[in-house]
Amino acid sequence: MKLKNKPRGTVDIFPPRSSIYQKIQQISSYVLKKNNYQLVIFPTYEFTELFTSSLGSTSDVVNKEMFTFFDRKGRSLTLRPEGTASTARLICQNKLVNSNNPLKLYYWGSMFRYERPQKGRYREFYQLGVELINASGIIADFEILRIAKDLLETFAIKDFTFQLNYLGSEKTRERYKKELKSFFSNKTDELCSDCQKRYQTNILRILDCSYCFGNFAFPSYQKSWDNEDNGYIEKLNQILDSDNFPYTYNYKLVRGLDYYTGLVFEVKLMDKNAILGGGRYDELIGKIGDKSLAAAGFAIGIDRLVNYLLDNFINNSTSIDIFFLALTEQAFPLIFTLQKKLKKYNYVSDYNLTIKKIKNPFKVLDYYLPRLTIIIGEEELKSDKILIKDCQKKKDFFVDSKKLIKWIDQYLTKSLD
Ligand code: AMP
Q1: Cis peptide before 43 (omega within 30 of 0)
Q2: Is 308 in the pocket of ligand 1 (CB under 6 A)?
């Protein structure tokens, strides 16, 4: 049977690309753990109601992009389109907050949105999400920005600027919506058909429309800020400036989902797609559970991050540290002993599984691209002197087999300096 291709918008991730996902996961877990953030794992699907009631029934995610299905008992389930709502549910149902102290969590996993696929936009994509729960105030907002910046820097990304906006209090948000309403009152027929509906149901969502966004000089959010909002911005700017934090304000940034309340932010690299986005969501947890808790967080789009790293500075090739080239079957016991000894080091090693009677046994190295090749043939076994080839510097060494592991470690460490 010839299988159909995989579903549109899904991706197969395999080496060498998959090793970058793995590295990002390892590095980010390390950075987050050092900052006292802990991992949560929630289900791939939830009751649909969790998302419809928290992300906003008029948001594009809920309206057009959810993968919703019915189970055998007719219950409506949805593949998670994002992680904040699930984290909020997990916290409430497992009663994770029972003090006044903040809860610092992160998650990693694939999310599902029925979007039009293109480079950097998939129907199943990976996110790393960070959530700071039970924490209000300006330092908590700065903490979440600082962690996001820390992660980008750890991935060696330098040229980025955070775009910020401040949605303010309920009153400020209402003021801005009113402003938008009057701005569009005599232009509704110029809006796309979706936005004509949004004008009636949730006017803020017009700012998320890729078609209408470029067509109008939207009113700036800044004009809706009151004294309190301006006081917050001033203070936040002071903290950001004293930290040399890279930021700018985008007074039209509202970020697609209904649950955002105060600070919102996004980072774009090179193209128009954001690599990371987040903000404060003080009302979400109260809607899901019986306790209202202030919170803020962000999610990084891992596929976009990997695309950026590959386009910019990661050499997209697999190479290993050590390749043991057995020229005779009698070499295998020695190779296994050497690999056992290598276990306590951090090197990637491999070896040939069969002895091929080919003219050039070194051809195999073009496939593995090792930094060092350890050649073990009859001569080497007899003399106990092992031939080592530095494949990059094209140098040969003969080393006593008993001293081999120490020699390899010293050599590889030195050549990294
Ligand atoms: P959001 O959950 O919409 O706030 O998105 C957070 C981040 O996830 C974005 O900045 C993107 O990097 C990434 N992202 C969102 N949607 C997609 C998608 N369809 N494909 C790939 N990455 C996405």
Answers
A1: no
A2: no
